[in-house]
Amino acid sequence: MVHIKRVELTNFKSFGGTTSIPLLPGFTVVSGPNGSGKSNILDALLFALGLSSSKGMRAERLPDLVNNSQSRKTTVETRVTVTFDLSDLTFAELEEEPTELEGEGETGARGLVAEGEWSVTRKLRVTKQGTYTSTYYINGEPCTQTELHEQLNRLRIYPEGYNVVLQGDVTGIITMKPRERREIIDELAGVAQFDRKIVLAREKLDTVKEREERSRIVEQELISQRDRLAKDRAQAMKYQQLKAELQEKSLWWAVLNYQTLQQQLWRYREQIEAGDRSHSELTEQFQLQQSQIKQATTTLEALNALVKAMGEEELLQLQSTLATQEAELASQQQRRRELETAAQKASEQLGQTQAAIEEHSQTLANLQAQKKTETELEQQRESDRHVAETSLNQTRREADQIANQAESWMVQQTDLHRQIEALQKSLNPQKTEQARLRERAEQLARQTQEREQALESLQGELTTHQQTLQRATSGVSEATAQVESLSRIVTAVEEDLSVQQDTLNRLLEEQRERQRKLDRLEAEQQARAEAAGTYATMAIQKAGLTGVCGLVCQLGRVEPQYQLALEIAAGGRLGHIVVEDDTVAAEAIALLKRQKAGRATFLPLNKIRPSSERMETDTLATLDGLVDLAVNLIEYDRPYHGIFRYVFGTTLVFKSLNQARRYLGQYRMVTLDGELLESSGAMTGGSSTSRSSLHFGSADNQLRAATGAIASLKERLAEIERILTRCHQAITEGTQTVKQRSAELIEAKQNLREATQQVAQVQSQIVAITTTIEQTRSQLNTAQQELSTARERLAALDSTIPAAEQQLQSDRETLAQLERTNSHTEWQQIQVRLRQQEAHLQAQETALREVQQRLGYIETTTAALGEKLAADHLRAADFQQQQQSLNQQITDTQNRITTINSQISQTRAAISQVEQRLGTAKQERDRAEAQLREMQTAQSQLEWQIQKLEETQQGRREQLNIKQQQLETQKAELPDPLPTIPEKLDLATLQREIKSLTKRMEDLEPVNMLALEEYEHTTTRLEELSQKLATLHGERTELLLRIENFTTLRRRAFQEAFDAVNQNFQTIFAELSEGDGYLQIDDPEDPFNSGLNLVAHPKGKPVQRLTSMSGGEKSLTALSFIFALQRYRPSPFYAFDEVDMFLDGANVERLAKMIKGQAEQAQFIVVSLRRPMMEASQRTIGVTQARGAYTQVLGIKLS
């Protein structure tokens, strides 16, 4: 657990010299007498970590933190070092809290390290003059306070947080205003960050708005310039037209003598005129068709809105769901086909393996039968050999008897026979063994070669499967990465879509509220205007009549102390309309009649005649209490002097009623309090419950204020409408993106499942092949060892047998030579019989060896077939397992297909219901749409006919120009004298036309022919500027939407923080006070303009607000709030300074119990004098201070 390991104080407040205070994790209490300096330890933490100002550390200025004993020195210094133990901190935890500030490049070297210690030091150096410097150090390297706070934020230690709670902080929570209490939640939620983003966006919006306004100004200038150039351009085009006509007439003058060509020219003109008439008729038909299409479009839009309201969006959603389900169904069906193909292939391989098993079993059975036959034959051959050997032995015994009777050569012959017999007995088994070993060696060599080939084939198959596994594993990784990427994308888009939807809902609510306010203001303005008689004035001003000067009240300015008196004196004449002359008044009256806009009184400046009665100055001076003539107390422009003389006449203004009463019946008077005294003696006065809304100098202001408020509301409503349009577009795009990405995610998950299944299948195949390889390799090693042994024995026999055969051959030659010298007949006969029997015995032994060799081959072949049969059985078992797995997958896929088909049926049923509901409306809409398409087709046909006619007319005019050129060409070729001019064309008439054209051109001069080019240039610039304005409009809309989204996120972040802190507060308050409580926002609909109240219900008492509680209850409630804040944003350590001072013993025990529980997750350092707090702590640090000495610290271990 990260915690403060040590605090080292040097000359800090009451600590003189250097004092090092070790601290351990868990719950530590610092206690000591009042004034001993125990709270200075917490002040040292605040000082070193830069978490508070000097006043927060109970000092007026930072130099006051230096120990008093150092004040006599020239330069004094205090230093505090806080060392953190980061041994339990991991790099992952460091990365969880990245700093949001920039410029942290140089802090990396002295930043947090996931192992060991991390120290923060602050030095304060104070000079004799009182100036000081404060320096921060991280691990001994200087840094700024901002860099330090960046690193502390990564440890979840915040300057605005409640890591260190001093004595006044609890009281501050109690006494602070509700709005300040709510701002604490703002800090926790990071509202300031959103405010900064909103400010930056608004600054950029202002820049874009300024650019747009500048462009609008340029646009207006270009429009004015274009309109001005349009007149010059029209004149220049007229001049060009006249000039072209003059040239044409001149050409006619040159070709009048050519009758044929002239007739052709007239024919073309007639055709062109006829085409123009047709063009006009077609144009009229086209315009009529356009109006019909517009009407049909309106009808279609109404029907579309009706269909949409009846559930078309639901139908589209169901159709989208159906498309997704059908896509998944196709995927599952493709998967089933692939699995069925794989199952069929496995079945074929299983069939082949089972056929091989049957073939090998049949061969094995044949070999067993052959072995039985050969065994019986071996027994027969052994019996024959035994009979032959018995007969030979009998003959030899007879030969021995004869030999005993013979001479010495007989002895020699007998010895040779015995020697030959011994050699044959020794040599025959060796030859038999040699033949058997050769056969076995050949068989083992073949088996070794077969197994090596099989091993090589299995190795290749294993390599292939491993490559397949590698590709499949890579596919799984890619599919997993794709699923994760798509999941992140879908989550991000859904989050953005949620923000957009919240923004949309909030803006719709604001739109409704502002629209209601706008309607109310407009209604009030209209009612006020009607009540004040200005409704008629507004109608006249809207009409834009020239010569209207305004209302009487708008043309005069009055000081506040005279306003009531003068308004009472003017009476209804305040609402009269001043005009320049009676003609304007007559036009205005006629306008009011036409529009039925009410009545009004007009004061024409040219006809108004004020009263001729005059008041002498001397007379006025004698009147006691007189202020002045009413007309003298108002300011106005000179042209309106007669108007105000007419309005006020000789009305006098007096200070009070008593003073005016003296002159009652002599003058018309008004007092400053609003009493009116007529010259007839009538008096008007009393309380004024309602007055006219017209006032001097204020009618225009009121109208302007109301108009300004309405304009502001309309501007905001237009802005909201723009944002809503863009927001709807963003929601539509986001919804489409979510649908698309969700479909891609479903497909990616399906691919991942398929890839995972393929990996499992290939892995099982690899395991089976590996097992087969191991078995084959073991069999190969055994065969190789047996082959090596056989070859070694064969080599030994090959070296022994030739010598024995050579010795046998030598003995036989010696015996034959000896027998040739013997003439004894009986001996010869016995010898012949003996050789025959020996030959017969040898033949029997050879036959026996052949049978034994065949038996050995059968046994070897049987063993090999047994091994192949075992391998085939293993492969068959693998294929059967693979087939079962594939069949299970096919069953699962089929079940999924069945489920999807059921879902598709349900979706189609829902679509059918919606379509049935939409049936009649959609048919009407489709008919309207078909009619509209027919009209559009007819319009296109008309447009094509008009275009075709224009092309024909253009061709005719081109032919006309060609004929004119031909006429000019023929002019040079005309014979002399010229032919007679046709009578249909009068030269005088043509000449008059030419002169008329020339005169008209002269009347137009001078002509600005550059206006043609300048007009086109200005129009081009205007189009470019319009595109630029459209771009700026889009940027402005995007910025407005961004600001609204930031506002939504700001509100959401605050609400999440408030809900979490409120939940924490309820839990903690219930634990501390055994009651219940909650946090309350004054206006939940507008939390950022509201306050935060702590509402508590202590046990056995009614529900109370914070201001109504006792001191202890307030402290418990404030502490609960502080704990709730800490639990929402936990830190590695907390320090409390006598927060239990206002609590009784029972509440201190509950507070200590809570701190003890919290100390399992964080380090707690509590300054307290209360016994329950010290008893609950894990350790206590004692602080004491002798009189005039430094503060001393010692550890106390409580039993």
TrEMBL record:
| Any one GO cellular component localisation term in the record | chromosome
Q: Does the keyword field hold Ubl conjugation?
A: no
Q: Which Gene3D superfamilies match?
A: 1.10.287.1490, 1.20.1060.20, 3.30.70.1620, P-loop containing nucleotide triphosphate hydrolases
Positions that bind ATP: P33, N34, G35, S36, G37, K38, S39, N40
SMART domains referenced in this protein's UniProt entry, alphabetically = SMC_hinge
- What does the entry give for GO biological process? chromosome condensation; chromosome segregation; DNA replication; sister chromatid cohesion
Q: Where in the cell is it found?
A: Cytoplasm
Which ranges are annotated Basic and acidic residues under compositional bias?
Answer: 371-388, 433-453
> What residue spans carry the region label Disordered?
369-396, 425-453
Any one GO MF annotation of this record: DNA binding
* InterPro entries membership: P-loop_NTPase, RecF/RecN/SMC_N, SMC, SMC_hinge, SMC_hinge_sf, SMC_prok
All copies of the SMC hinge domain together span: 546-664
Q: Which UniProt keywords apply?
A: ATP-binding, Coiled coil, Cytoplasm, DNA-binding, Nucleotide-binding
Q: Output the CDD domains linked to this UniProt entry.
A: ABC_SMC_barmotin
Q: Which SUPFAM superfamilies match?
A: P-loop containing nucleoside triphosphate hydrolases, Smc hinge domain, Tropomyosin
User: Per the database entry, which stretches of residues form a coiled coil?
Assistant: 191-249, 490-528, 703-952, 987-1042
**HAMAP family per the record?**
Smc_prok
Q: How does it assemble?
A: Homodimer.
**Record's function text:** Required for chromosome condensation and partitioning.
Q: What is known of its domains?
A: Contains large globular domains required for ATP hydrolysis at each terminus and a third globular domain forming a flexible hinge near the middle of the molecule. These domains are separated by coiled-coil structures.
NCBIfam families the record matches? SMC_prok_A, SMC_prok_B
Family (UniProt): Belongs to the SMC family.
Q: What is the recorded name of this protein?
A: Chromosome partition protein Smc
UniProt organism field: Limnospira maxima CS-328
